[in-house]
């Protein structure tokens, strides 16, 4: 009865007596100031700090104010939840979330606490031991002094408060430096005089209880234990109400909760099947939600805290993947969801391969399952993180960057209606940078374009257009991107920038293939056929040059044979890619005319046998295909203007890929892939 | 009116009368001697006095006279003294403020001077009553420049009489100043010295500008300053001399008197004028030699060149132009960008402002540049030849003269006829009088011609033709040099000279035409691929330019003859293959297409067809801009040659038109032998898929031309030239087009949101998430241990600190105890 009354009174106060609550808090703080001098410094602290006094009052035996009196009756599990409810509601506007701040134990666990008082002795590490010895020495000294002069001990007592004060200040400053999430730990700083030690057997019993008889009260304790574990080691250990006894307990409670929490929550709330953004509303309207909400919130908060603290990718992956299964609960807590986005974007951008993939799945889930505001956040955050992380391209990072690119494309492709504006704006931005550079040709501006950041950004949008061209009308975007790519290639002529140019050509080929438009790239490749290296360069400095990892060739390699070979081979590859797209088109012979003449000229002039062979092979194949088309179209009766007939020309062969050129291109692709693998 | 003025002006306004001037002279000398004593005068409020003076100057003459009469009595001696003194001291006062840039100081000087002048003139008015001469000095100077010599001399004499006495004092003061300077000089730090020198420079400059006739000797001092060791001073000196010379050099050329003339007795005025002119000329010469000498010193090189250039620009009519020109031309292809630009600008302005020097300088400059080119064997900066493009040749010189000749007698006749009518009425005396009048008129006009700088048209024509021949000589020299196989170096001058040839092609003499065309043909044929045979290689742009020039030349001169330039077509046909978008200039290509194919008449169907085919193929491998230019040309060709439209149809019977070659040879080098008529323009079908919408629509429109009624085809004649098409679809334009167009995406087929992966492998992604839980458990335990250690460490440290501070408190405690004890006692 008393419980109920208290509950009602609390509710009433919460709803209707906002001013009373405020006054109460104020009074409390004043009262505290008087009654406990060691907290005298706290009145300068902010609102959030005041809050904790509200709670402290409740267990303070001297807190005899009317409202506090009501509270003091209710030291129980329910109260805890109530308390949390209140705190949360009050503080949510601040973005400050409080959790179960006090932890009165249910009888069962407290018994166990008493019985198992064997603290496992953690081996003190070397530096710790030294300090320990030092401490012992000093302590004995102090004791001696006290014994000598008993009055001193009195004096010391009188001064102790000052010392404490300075001590607590120390703590505050420490904790404010740490992440904001452990602010709440301060609350428990002084509330728990007797701390409860979690032991292995306690946890075992709890786990068993939770699994066997799903009941919120036990769960609260487990969640609190989980919380304590998550916050372990960030300075709040000594002040948290629950002590983790040993490492076994630590890992057990973490893995158990992470593993089972989602199931438990679902079971308790009677949710079956998957959650999505439509039925999450239904869930939050359920009656069980009220009791479960603080628990779920505490769980999510603690997990996020753990994510922030941890650095090991395996643990992070585990936490992330578990959080992913209960991702829909985040939808009920917007501030937590935003935090989750922030953390996972960070992990996605900087983590290793599997962690990055894991985080990406979380982001994607949020972007696709949550309301569309979250999608916008994800779009901006991922793109921003990508830009910040793609400044350098090395063989190690290239794969990661490619993954990041792909995941951005995935996320942006989730809802084209929403993302298209962003994409278009971004490409326009790239185009305006380019325009400026074309106009002024200043060194800084050129440098900005001639950077991996710029190229990788284009690459993302190229992929984006390629993926979505079939389903959406992205014609203007396509046109703009092609303009940007051609502009970049045009801005950097000369053999030094051949790698950059090859990149542009490659992207153009890609666009052309997926969008089915004709983009002439042949002229962009002719240059390198005429670049004459020093054939007689000594063979000693022959090095395999990987053109895919550079945008500019260092000067000393410019004349080297290795560079010439690499560039010609890459040019052949790109040219055959271009040809293979149109090798069934009726005008293939014309398309090949000029390149063929130039290739022939190159073939006659070059003396490098390593280049002559592939060039000759390409020439033969092109010629062969040319003759093939020529033969076929001599039989045809339509004219160039007859578009449908042109489109249907050799379609059957195209589907079968029966022309020899297709086979040739496939083989070229094969070799390039195997070469890459070898590197 | 006069009364009104009187009310406004302060009653005791200082007025300078004739008798007072005499006093002032004495005073001046007095002040000159006793500078310290007169020092207080410098502190007088010059501004207000100035205002008074100028106010007086505003009055009209008669008013002034009346004012004088009234005020002469009132004017006190002392005030006059102040007035006079102020006028001399003032420039010194103004010195720290003024910088070396001429305009500002000029103005202040003028103001002062105008005050000076008015007072001077007032007295003059009283004495001589010659109101017509009452002008402020700068006005006068300006007028003098324009007016005839005699008039000027007269004016100067008068002026000299006016100012002479006053200036003496001025010079005396200057001398004194230098003396003082010399004394103090030793004590001054170098910085102060620099400042002093600067001030001195400004002072002299101001004096010179104020009254060049009197202070002409100061030029010498200025020149001496230019010998200073400090480069900055030298620079400043050179610049101030430049400003001075620009200002005081008269608008005519100075002719020094011959010996005979000097022997003759002349008036004082003439002697003075002669002295002035000879001094000016001598100092100018000295200045120039100094400049030319300094021009070789790297530290003052730029300043010297700048001075020379502005001299050339400003006083191109004056003596010693030749030497200025020589040194400017010498620097015209300097490696230093700023110097080169300065010189080129100077030469350009010389060409553009021929009126200043009558064209002589143009001829000289062109000849000098030609020599320069010859001397350096065509290895100069392109800018040096580019200046020729600013040359202006007047085709109508001869014509207008001829017309005039024709018109004049007519007029005379008319006049005579009128005379005849009048003759009846007028007497012989009158007739005589009229004859005399006409005679004098003719004489005067002849004199005027002789004096004025505009040479008669015959002379101008001669000069122009000489200039032209020098220009063309240079151009041909460069062409010849480019052809010379023995010089395999680059040809920096070829491009500008081809430009020039294109521009002036209508002036080329017919005799040269054959040679020129042969040259161009040969040059256009030079290619990279037969380097070994010819030893030279020209860029594609240059070769295209050769073709363009050849066509221009032919069109401008032999339009009627219609010579077929087959060779150039062959070159163009092959050059299309050589063209590289980023290496060569697209504009030149478009220009070539325009002049050779778009504008020209195509009678040869074979050739037209070959070009149509080649352009279509060309547009398949090049960017939008080039493709657009090619397609515009192609369309134009198809429009003009209706038979070529057969290319648009896949007609088995096309062979009937094929002529000699029945099968298309894409790699033929001769358009006539390519057999293009037998081909089909399949390219269009691929171009229809072009990403650029304007190209794809163009291709579509071309492909439908075959069905067009030939009669209607003229209506659709596109107006855009290949060059315009090129610039319209250049990269910049392409980027511009799409900006600022917020395009909502209209989707073709909506995909279920967020269900499947677009680019990634879903299977792979699914497998990424396997986590080894035991591993995690172990790691968590490690994590715990580490944190526990850290926490323990922190705790221990805190404890330790606490204990330590407790111990230290013991000291406090002891102190307090002692204190208490003391207090008790």
Q: What structural class do helix, strand and pairing data of chain A support?
A: mainly alpha
How much of the polypeptide of chain B forms β-strand, as a percent range?
under 5%
Major β-sheet annotation of chain A: 2 strands, parallel
- How many E-type strands of chain A? 2
Oligomer: heterodimer
Number of helical segments of chain B?
A: 38
Q: Approximately how much beta-strand content do the residues of chain A carry?
A: under 5%
Please compute the radius of gyration of chain A using only Cα atoms.
Answer: 35 Å
Q: First CA to last CA of chain B: what distance?
A: 106 Å
Family (chain A): Belongs to the NOC2 family.
Keywords (chain A): Nucleus
Pfam families (chain A): Noc2
Protein name (chain A): Nucleolar complex protein
Question: Which labels suit this protein?
Answer:
heterodimer, A: 679 residues, mainly alpha, two-stranded parallel sheet, 32 helices, 73% helix, elongated, B: 825 residues, disordered N terminus
Describe this structure in words.
The complex is a heterodimer of chains A (679) and B (825). Residues 1-6, 26-123 and 168-194 of chain A have low confidence and may be disordered. Helix content of chain A is 73%, strand content 1%. In chain A, strands 1-2 form a two-stranded parallel sheet. Chain A is mainly α and 679 residues long. In chain A, helix 10 (200-212) runs parallel beside helix 12, helix 18 runs antiparallel to helix 19 (372-389) and helix 25 packs parallel to helix 27 (561-581). Chain B is mainly alpha-helical and 825 residues long. Among the domains of chain B are: 401-456; 508-735, no CATH class. Chain B has helices spanning 2-8, 18-33, 35-42, 46-58, 61-74, 77-94, 102-128, 137-146, 149-185, 190-210, 212-215, 218-225, 231-248, 259-263, 268-294, 301-314, 321-330, 337-352, 354-357, 360-375, 383-386, 397-423, 428-451, 457-483, 494-503, 510-525, 531-534, 540-557, 566-578, 586-598, 605-621, 624-640, 683-687, 693-703, 722-728, 731-737, 762-767, 773-824. Chain B is flat and about 135 Å long. The termini of chain B are far apart. The N terminus of chain B is likely disordered. Chains A and B meet through helix 7, helix 8, helix 12, helix 15 and helix 18 of A and helix 31, helix 32, helix 33, helix 34 and helix 36 of B.
């Amino acid at each position: 009865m008393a419980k109920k009354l208290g509950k009602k009174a609390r509710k009433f106060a919460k709803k209707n007596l906002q001013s009373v609550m405020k006054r109460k808090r104020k009074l409390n703080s004043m009262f505290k100031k008087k009654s406990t001098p060691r907290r005298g410094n706290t009145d300068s602290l902010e609102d959030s700090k005041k809050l904790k006094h509200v709670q402290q009052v409740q267990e303070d035996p001297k807190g005899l104010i009317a409202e506090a009196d009501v509270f003091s009756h209710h030291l129980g599990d329910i109260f805890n939840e109530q308390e949390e409810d209140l705190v949360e509601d009050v503080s949510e506007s601040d973005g400050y979330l409080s959790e179960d701040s006090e932890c009165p134990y249910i009888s069962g666990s407290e018994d166990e606490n008493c019985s198992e008082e064997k603290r496992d002795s953690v081996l003190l590490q070397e530096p710790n031991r030294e300090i320990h010895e030092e401490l012992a020495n000093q302590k004995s000294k102090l004791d001696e002094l006290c014994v000598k002069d008993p009055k001193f001990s009195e004096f010391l007592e009188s001064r102790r408060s000052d010392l404490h004060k300075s001590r607590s200040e120390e703590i505050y400053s420490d904790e404010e430096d740490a992440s904001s999430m452990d602010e709440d730990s301060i609350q428990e700083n002084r509330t728990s005089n007797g701390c409860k030690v979690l032991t292995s057997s306690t946890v075992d019993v709890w786990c068993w209880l939770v699994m066997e008889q799903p009941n919120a009260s036990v769960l609260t304790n487990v969640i609190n234990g989980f919380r304590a574990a998550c916050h372990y080691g960030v300075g709040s250990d000594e002040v948290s109400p629950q002590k983790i006894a040993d490492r076994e307990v630590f890992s057990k409670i973490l893995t158990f909760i992470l593993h089972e929490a989602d199931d438990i929550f679902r079971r308790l709330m009677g949710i079956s099947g998957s959650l999505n953004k439509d039925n999450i509303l239904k869930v939050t309207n359920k009656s069980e939600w009220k009791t479960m909400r603080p628990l779920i919130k505490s769980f999510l908060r603690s997990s996020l805290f753990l994510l922030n603290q941890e650095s090991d990718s395996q643990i992070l992956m585990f936490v992330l993947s578990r959080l992913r299964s209960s991702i829909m609960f985040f939808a009920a807590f917007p501030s937590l969801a935003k935090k989750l986005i922030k953390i996972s974007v960070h992990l996605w951008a900087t983590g290793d391969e599997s962690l990055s993939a894991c985080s990406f799945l979380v982001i994607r889930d949020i972007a696709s399952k949550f309301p569309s505001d979250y999608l916008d956040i994800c779009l901006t955050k991922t793109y921003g993180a990508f830009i910040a992380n793609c400044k350098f391209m090395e063989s190690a990072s290239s794969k990661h960057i490619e993954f990041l690119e792909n995941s951005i494309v995935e996320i942006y492709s989730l809802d084209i209606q929403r993302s298209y504006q962003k994409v278009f704006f971004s490409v326009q931005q790239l185009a305006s940078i380019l325009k400026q550079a074309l106009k002024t040709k200043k060194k800084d501006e050129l440098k900005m374009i001639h950077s991996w950041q710029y190229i990788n950004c284009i690459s993302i949008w190229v992929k984006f257009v390629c993926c979505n061209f079939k389903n959406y009308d992205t014609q203007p975007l396509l046109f703009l991107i092609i303009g940007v790519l051609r502009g970049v290639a045009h801005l950097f002529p000369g053999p030094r920038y051949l790698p950059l140019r090859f990149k542009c050509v490659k992207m153009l080929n890609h666009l052309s293939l997926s969008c089915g438009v004709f983009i002439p790239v042949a002229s962009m490749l002719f240059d390198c056929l005429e670049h004459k290296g020093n054939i007689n360069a000594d063979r000693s400095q022959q090095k395999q040059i990987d053109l895919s990892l550079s945008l500019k060739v260092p000067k000393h390699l410019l004349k080297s044979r290795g560079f010439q070979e690499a560039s010609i081979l890459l040019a052949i590859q790109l040219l055959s890619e271009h040809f293979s797209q149109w090798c069934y088109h009726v005008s293939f012979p014309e398309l090949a005319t000029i390149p063929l003449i130039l290739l022939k000229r190159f073939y006659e002039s070059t003396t490098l046998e390593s280049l002559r062979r592939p060039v000759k092979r390409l020439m033969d194949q092109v010629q062969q295909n040319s003759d093939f088309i020529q033969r076929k179209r001599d039989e045809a009766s339509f004219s160039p203007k007859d578009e449908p007939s042109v489109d249907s020309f050799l379609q059957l062969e195209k589907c079968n890929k029966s022309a020899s050129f297709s086979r040739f291109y496939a083989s070229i692709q094969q070799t390039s892939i195997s070469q890459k693998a070898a590197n | 009116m006069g009364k009104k003025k009187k009310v406004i002006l302060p009653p005791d306004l200082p007025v300078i009368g004739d008798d007072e001037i005499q006093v002032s002279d004495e005073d001046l000398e007095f002040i000159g001697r006793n500078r310290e004593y007169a020092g207080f005068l410098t502190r007088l409020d010059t501004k207000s006095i100035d205002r008074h003076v100028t106010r007086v100057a505003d009055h009209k003459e008669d008013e002034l006279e009346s004012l004088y009469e009234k005020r002469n009595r009132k004017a006190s001696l002392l005030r006059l003294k102040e007035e006079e003194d102020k006028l001399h001291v003032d420039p010194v006062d103004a010195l720290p403020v003024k910088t070396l840039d001429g305009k500002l100081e000029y103005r202040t000087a003028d103001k002062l001077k105008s005050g000076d002048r008015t007072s001077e003139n007032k007295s003059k008015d009283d004495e001589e009553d010659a109101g017509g001469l009452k002008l402020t000095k700068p006005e006068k100077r300006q007028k003098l420049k324009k007016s005839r010599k005699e008039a000027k001399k007269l004016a100067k004499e008068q002026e000299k009489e006016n100012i002479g006495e006053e200036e003496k004092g001025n010079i005396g003061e200057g001398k004194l100043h230098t003396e003082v300077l010399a004394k103090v000089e030793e004590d001054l730090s170098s910085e102060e010295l620099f400042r002093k020198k600067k001030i001195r420079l400004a002072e002299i400059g101001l004096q010179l500008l104020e009254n060049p006739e009197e202070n002409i000797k100061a030029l010498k001092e200025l020149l001496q300053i230019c010998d200073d060791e400090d480069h900055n001073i030298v620079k400043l000196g050179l610049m101030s001399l430049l400003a001075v010379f620009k200002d005081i050099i008269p608008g005519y050329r100075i002719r020094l008197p011959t010996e005979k003339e000097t022997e003759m007795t002349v008036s004082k005025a003439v002697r003075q004028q002669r002295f002035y002119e000879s001094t000016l000329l001598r100092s100018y010469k000295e200045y120039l030699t100094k400049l030319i000498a300094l021009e070789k010193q790297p530290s003052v090189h730029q300043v010297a060149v700048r001075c020379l250039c502005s001299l050339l620009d400003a006083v191109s009519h004056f003596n010693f132009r030749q030497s200025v020109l020589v040194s400017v031309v010498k620097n015209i292809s300097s490696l230093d960008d700023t110097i080169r630009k300065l010189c080129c600008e100077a030469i350009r302005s010389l060409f553009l402002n021929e009126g200043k020097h009558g064209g002589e300088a143009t001829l000289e400059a062109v000849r000098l540049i030609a020599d320069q080119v010859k001397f350096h064997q065509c290895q100069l900066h392109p800018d040096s030849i580019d200046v020729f493009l600013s040359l202006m040749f007047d085709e109508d010189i001869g014509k207008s003269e001829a017309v005039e000749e024709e018109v004049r007698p007519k007029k005379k006749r008319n006049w005579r006829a009128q005379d005849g009518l009048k003759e009846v009425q007028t007497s012989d005396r009158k007739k005589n009088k009229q004859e005399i009048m006409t005679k004098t008129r003719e004489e005067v006009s002849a004199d005027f011609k002789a004096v004025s700088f505009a040479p008669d048209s015959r002379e101008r024509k001669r000069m122009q033709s000489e200039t032209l021949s020098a220009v063309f000589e240079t151009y041909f020299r460069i062409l010849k040099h480019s052809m010379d196989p023995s010089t395999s170096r680059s040809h920096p001058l070829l491009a500008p000279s081809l430009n020039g040839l294109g521009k002036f092609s209508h002036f080329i003499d017919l005799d040269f035409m054959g040679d020129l065309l042969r040259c161009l043909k040969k040059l256009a044929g030079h290619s990279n691929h037969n380097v070994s045979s010819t030893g030279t290689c020209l860029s594609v742009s240059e070769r295209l330019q050769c073709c363009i020039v050849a066509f221009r030349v032919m069109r401008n001169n032999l339009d009627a003859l219609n010579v077929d330039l087959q060779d150039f077509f062959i070159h163009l046909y092959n050059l299309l293959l050589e063209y590289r978008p980023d290496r060569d200039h697209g504009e030149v290509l478009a220009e070539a297409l325009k002049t050779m194919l778009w504008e020209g008449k195509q009678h040869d169907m074979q050739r037209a067809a070959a070009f149509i085919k080649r352009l279509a193929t060309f547009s398949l491998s090049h960017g939008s801009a080039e493709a657009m230019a090619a397609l515009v040309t192609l369309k134009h060709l198809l429009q003009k040659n209706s038979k070529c439209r057969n290319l648009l149809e896949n007609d088995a019977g096309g062979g009937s038109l094929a002529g000699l070659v029945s099968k298309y040879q894409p790699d033929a080098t001769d358009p006539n032998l390519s057999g293009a008529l037998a081909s089909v323009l399949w390219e269009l079908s691929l171009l229809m898929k072009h990403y650029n919408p304007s190209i794809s629509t163009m291709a579509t429109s071309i492909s439908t031309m075959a069905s067009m009624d030939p009669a209607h085809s003229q209506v659709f004649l596109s107006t855009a030239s290949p060059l315009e098409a090129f610039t319209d679809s250049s990269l910049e334009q392409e980027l511009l087009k799409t900006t600022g167009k917020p395009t909502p995406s209209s989707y073709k087929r909506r995909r279920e949101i967020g269900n499947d992966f677009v680019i990634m492998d879903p299977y792979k992604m699914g497998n990424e998430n396997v986590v080894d839980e035991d591993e995690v458990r172990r790691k968590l335990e490690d994590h715990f241990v580490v944190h526990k250690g850290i926490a323990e460490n922190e705790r221990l440290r805190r404890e330790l600190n606490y204990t330590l501070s407790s111990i230290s408190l013991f000291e406090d405690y002891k102190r307090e105890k002692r204190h208490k004890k003391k207090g008790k006692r």
